[in-house]
Write a structure and sequence with these properties.
126 residues; 2 helices
């Protein structure tokens, strides 16, 4: 520091700043973890919705007596299936983007946390 941190009021100001910075850093770490988890959950929900759309693809198109579709109904079913395929491809692209953006930082954060836990445990034992 460019000043003497052992004298009052510099000591209190330095201590307060360090406490503030630690709190901000902890908040940012939690925010990043929450954001990644939320984005993964969003991809999961989007895939579930596509699955539900596929299950109900022809549900309202045919009557209960006949299991066949008319040419017009086939066209509607084909359009719905195409929409599901496009949505699925969009979700897969989002998942790849998510993986490319956050794999390395999350892995690094995990390793740093592991190192901190190991060093703390070593200090407790010795």
């Amino acid at each position: 520091y460019p000043y003497d941190t052992t004298k009052s009021p510099a000591y209190e100001l330095t201590f307060g700043l360090q406490v503030y910075i630690v709190c901000v850093t902890a908040f940012l770490n939690v925010s990043k973890d929450t954001m990644v988890t939320t984005m993964i959950a969003q991809c999961h929900c989007r895939l579930k919705l596509i699955g539900l759309s596929l299950k109900s693809l022809c549900q309202d198109l045919h009557d209960d007596k006949s299991m066949s579709l008319s040419p017009n109904q086939e066209k509607i079913a084909r359009a719905r299936l195409r929409d599901c395929a496009i949505q699925h491809q969009t979700v897969l692209e989002a998942a790849v983007l998510l993986q490319n953006c956050f794999s390395a930082p999350t892995f690094a954060q995990f390793n740093v946390s592991l190192l901190i836990i190991c060093v703390t445990a070593f200090q407790l034992v010795s």
